[in-house]
């Protein structure tokens, strides 16, 4: 099979390697593609802890495709089933996954890309946010995740205030149901505008979906007393400081929404399948850039540099 390896910071090679054989309780998936996650960007930059070259297919964890091999003891899945999976070497033509980490895709989604991991992540974050009708909900950072959360929150009856850097993202947020949009430019001006919109009490729920210090600081400032601050951004570039005085004084509940229980993660993927299959959620317009496996480096660079109109890259096989 063909598989991509990161050979050095900012460099890939696509090599021919043996297809993996499924072990007990595993399935082999003939991949159709994988989403590209922003969490790939730190390894792509080559931090001190990285070892090169990576294993074939490594970093890819948003794959979908067709089951083409079954390990001993696998039940409930059959050859030819189209699935999304939690796997870890999906920048390749084939990958292995535990059978319990695989979700079937219905015939109604035939031919449609389905990066199950980020879609399931969005559903799990939404559940943990406890968003209800009538609440004021700020979403800081409108990328792929923030756009989906905007749609879910607005459909739940919340008034969504979308805060993001790019005009493209703010336009997208409005299309996804945001009632208000604010450019992420001036810290004090953003706080003032949110205070004005909420009658001085700030937001019931604030979802930080950037993964940087400043947006985290901002998120705390615009969370109301006894509100809930949900950390959905992936903070992987070092320690963070928080204004503990403010968090204490307001009695803020803080939720780290990165799910680590595989069963809960898969449940989120199942909920995402139901939402997309029913038409309640349509992520198709959010996949803005597609690259073949041989251009994985371009996909990663686009995810880092975010050219005009960029939201989410898919690598197709």
TrEMBL record:
InterPro entries noted in UniProt: ADH-like_C, ADH-like_N, ADH_Zn_CS, GroES-like_sf, NAD(P)-bd_dom_sf, Zn_alcohol_dh
Keywords: Metal-binding, Oxidoreductase, Zinc
Domain Alcohol dehydrogenase-like N-terminal, first and last residues per copy: 23-106
UniProt key word Ribonucleoprotein: no
Cofactor dependency: Zn(2+)
GO MF assignments: oxidoreductase activity; zinc ion binding
Domain of life of the source: Bacteria
Domain Alcohol dehydrogenase-like C-terminal: 145-244
Gene3D superfamilies linked to this entry: Medium-chain alcohol dehydrogenases, catalytic domain, NAD(P)-binding Rossmann-like Domain
Family: Belongs to the zinc-containing alcohol dehydrogenase family.
Protein name, per record: Zinc-binding dehydrogenase
Source species of the chain: Enterovirga aerilata
Lineage, broadest ranks: Bacteria, Pseudomonadati, Pseudomonadota, Alphaproteobacteria, Hyphomicrobiales
């Amino acid at each position: 099979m063909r598989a991509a390896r990161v050979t050095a910071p900012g460099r890939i090679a696509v090599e021919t390697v043996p297809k993996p054989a499924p072990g007990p309780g595993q399935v082999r998936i003939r991949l159709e593609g994988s989403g590209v996650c922003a969490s790939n960007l730190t390894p792509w930059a080559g931090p001190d802890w990285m070892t090169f070259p990576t294993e074939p297919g490594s970093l890819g964890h948003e794959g979908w495709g067709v089951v083409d091999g079954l390990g001993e003891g696998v039940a409930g899945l059959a050859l030819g089933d189209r699935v999304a999976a939690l796997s870890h070497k999906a920048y390749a033509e084939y990958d292995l996954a535990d059978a319990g980490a695989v979700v079937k895709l219905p015939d109604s989604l035939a031919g449609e890309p389905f990066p199950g991991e980020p879609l399931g992540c969005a559903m799990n974050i939404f559940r943990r946010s406890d968003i209800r009708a009538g609440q004021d909900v700020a979403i800081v950072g409108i990328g792929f995740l923030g756009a989906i959360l905007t749609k879910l929150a607005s459909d739940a009856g919340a008034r969504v205030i979308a805060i993001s850097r790019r005009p493209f993202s703010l336009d997208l947020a409005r299309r996804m149901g945001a009632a208000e949009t604010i450019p992420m430019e001036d810290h004090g001006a953003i706080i003032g505008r949110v205070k004005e919109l909420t009658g001085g009490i700030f937001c019931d729920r604030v979802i930080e979906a950037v993964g940087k210090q400043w947006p985290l600081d901002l998120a705390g400032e615009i969370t109301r007393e006894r509100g809930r601050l949900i950390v959905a951004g992936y903070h992987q570039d070092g320690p963070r400081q928080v204004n503990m005085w403010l968090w204490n004084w307001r009695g803020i509940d803080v939720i780290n929404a990165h799910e680590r229980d595989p069963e809960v993660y898969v449940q989120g993927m199942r909920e995402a399948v139901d939402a997309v299959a029913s038409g309640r959620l349509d992520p198709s317009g959010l996949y803005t850039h597609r690259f073949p496996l041989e251009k994985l480096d371009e996909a990663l660079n686009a995810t880092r540099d975010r050219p005009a109109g960029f939201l989410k890259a898919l690598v197709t096989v």
